[in-house]
């Protein structure tokens, strides 16, 4: 039987409280029973809701997100279900698992170019392009992608989500698909370079108030990681980031395996 | 149809030989592909290094690959057997967007389709004749043609012949 976090917690509490027997226990039993019933009701309602609105959840990303938020508020995580909640609900194989696999494919294909760092915006564009050729057209949102990636994180340290500015702007969220930490300093430099997809020691010094040594060190680390390339034909060395350099949706030169 | 330049061509650092070796490897790979694709598209069989400078520069972004960079690209192409020098001075090279063996097979298929086996055909007919105008090997440089035919000789599918001052080939 699948574990229900909400009820589990309540069970625990009950066991604790049984240790301190007293008249109060009777009263608490009633309250406990009420709460259990309530949770049951919630869960049943949720499942009824899910099947009733199955099409809406399938087709509408905003609706899907609201549904998941609803689940979260009562401690239910459909993604954690081993029974394949989503495959039962949507009937098309595990929706998020599918996205996760496609995310891996896109990241593998683009990582020679961007050093394993891709903006959420570009990732989504490429996913939509790849999925568009498949039979079932389900619209996927940024939220769907992030959830799928979080699912991936459970499998290993390979994937991480880097937020540059704490906004929901898709070019401010980067997906890193190779292991290794991006330090706070690295993130600061990426933030500074994002707008024009390049930066320089001079620019960093004025934007971040760092000294020469620090600027150079971080830039060299980004060069070493393959995230930045250097241009020496300008008045000073410029450091460019393929991750931010106009994504190329018009070109099909990044080949993805055909969707099945 | 216009040639489609790869994204790297508009990327300024593409024209600076990258200090990071892993990145340089990716850069050289992209340059090799660009050279081959460009030659394939424009039916260039022989590349003259001096004359092809425009391939290694992008005026729109005011960048060009240094001499050292160009040499590295050519070295890399040589390493992958994608070019072969015509002269010791390394001024010109054959560009193998198809290699001699692939050319040999293509030409042989053409010859057998046209029922040309057991007849002699001149080099001129094979590269400049009216019948071959739509073939990929039309206009092929003669030294490349000879290399292609030699691969056929090695498998007894053809024999290069000299007759009356003309060079020709007999297909079997």
From TrEMBL, chain B:
Coiled coil: none annotated. Keywords: Protein transport, Transport. One of its GO terms (biological process) is protein transport to vacuole involved in ubiquitin-dependent protein catabolic process via the multivesicular body sorting pathway. SUPFAM superfamilies: Winged helix' DNA-binding domain. Gene3D superfamilies: Winged helix' DNA-binding domain. Chain C. Domain 1, Winged helix-like DNA-binding domain superfamily/Winged helix DNA-binding domain. One of its GO terms (molecular function) is protein homodimerization activity. InterPro entries: ESCRT-II_cplx_Vps25-sub, ESCRT-II_cplx_Vps25-sub_N, WH-like_DNA-bd_sf, WH_DNA-bd_sf. It comes from the Eukaryota. GO terms for cellular component: ESCRT II complex. This is Vacuolar protein-sorting-associated protein 25. It comes from Daphnia pulex (Water flea).
């Amino acid at each position: 039987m699948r574990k229900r976090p909400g009820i589990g917690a309540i069970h625990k509490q009950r066991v604790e409280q049984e240790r301190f027997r007293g008249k109060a226990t009777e009263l608490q039993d009633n309250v406990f029973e009420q709460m259990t019933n309530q949770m049951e009701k919630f869960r049943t309602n949720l499942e009824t809701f899910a099947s009733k609105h199955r099409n809406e959840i399938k087709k509408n990303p905003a609706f899907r997100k609201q549904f998941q938020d609803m689940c979260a508020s009562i401690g239910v995580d459909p993604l954690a279900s081993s029974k394949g909640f989503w495959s039962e609900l949507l009937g098309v194989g595990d929706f998020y698992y599918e996205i996760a696999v496609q995310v891996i494919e896109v990241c593998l294909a683009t990582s020679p170019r961007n050093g394993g760092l891709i903006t959420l915006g570009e990732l989504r564009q490429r996913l939509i392009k790849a999925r568009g050729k498949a039979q079932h057209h389900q619209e996927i949102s940024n939220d769907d992608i992030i959830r799928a990636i979080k699912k991936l994180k459970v499998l290993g340290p390979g994937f991480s989500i880097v937020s540059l500015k704490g906004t929901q702007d898709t070019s401010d969220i980067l997906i890193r698909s190779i292991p290794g930490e991006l330090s706070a300093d690295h993130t600061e430099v990426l933030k500074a370079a994002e707008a024009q997809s390049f930066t320089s020691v001079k620019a960093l010094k004025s934007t971040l108030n760092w000294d020469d040594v620090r600027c150079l060190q971080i830039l060299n680390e980004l060069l070493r990681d393959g995230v930045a390339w250097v241009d020496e034909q300008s008045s000073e060395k410029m450091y460019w980031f393929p991750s931010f350099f106009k994504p190329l949706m018009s070109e099909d030169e990044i080949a993805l395996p055909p969707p099945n | 149809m216009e040639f489609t330049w790869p994204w790297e061509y508009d990327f300024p650092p593409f024209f600076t030989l990258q200090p990071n070796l892993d990145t340089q490897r990716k850069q050289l790979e992209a340059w090799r592909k660009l050279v081959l694709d460009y030659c394939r598209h424009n039916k260039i069989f022989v590349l003259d290094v001096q004359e092809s400078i425009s391939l290694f520069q992008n005026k729109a972004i005011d960048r060009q690959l240094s001499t050292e960079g160009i040499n590295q690209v050519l070295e890399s192409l040589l390493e992958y057997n994608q070019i072969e020098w015509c002269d010791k001075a390394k001024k010109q090279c054959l560009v193998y967007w198809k290699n001699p063996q692939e050319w040999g097979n293509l030409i042989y298929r053409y010859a057998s389709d046209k029922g040309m086996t057991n007849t002699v055909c001149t080099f001129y007919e094979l590269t400049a004749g009216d019948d071959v105008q739509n073939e990929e090997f039309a206009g092929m440089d003669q030294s490349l043609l000879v290399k292609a035919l030699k691969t056929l000789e090695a498998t007894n599918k053809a024999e290069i012949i000299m007759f009356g001052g003309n060079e020709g080939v007999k297909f079997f």
